[in-house]
Give the backbone structure.
Amino acid sequence: MNIKDRIMKWIKREANKRVLWEYLKHTPILTVIIMRGTPGSGKSTIAKKVNKVDPSITRIHSTDDYFVGEDGQYKFNADTLMGNHSKNYNAFCKSLNERIPIVIVDNTNIKHKWYREYVEKANEIGYQAIEVLIDPDYCTVDEMYKRNKHNVPKKIVENMYNALKNNMKPIEGCQKQFII
């Protein structure tokens, strides 16, 4: 990708972020935001920026948080992955039951089956669900691999990138999708 194309993609991404911020300022009070993107794509950065606007009305739920040890270090363990996803989902449900106005699911959510239960629970409890999809073509697999903070192997980042490219449509139950 040449420099002109990269600049145009950046401009489009920044414009789409502004559209998202404006939407959130005028959205119904109860909203679930489903972040979707590969490791290193910027999901957590955007989730944290939304949270920073008013942390008292926002909660971020990320399965990655359950891999952080008492020493503050991230240590992925495949044996605890499913259990950690369950813990994350339970914490998410608790936030909905507490009526936290903006609840963010900050996982990769590449495939619909990976986040369907979050959307269904949000709709069941009266929240609107929106997707924020990080455009997989915003940067290269190499760039995402270098930026990911959890040392996800390049081949897995590439596989997730390819899977996301083939699965960009929003899931049924999401009221809106933003591609950033």
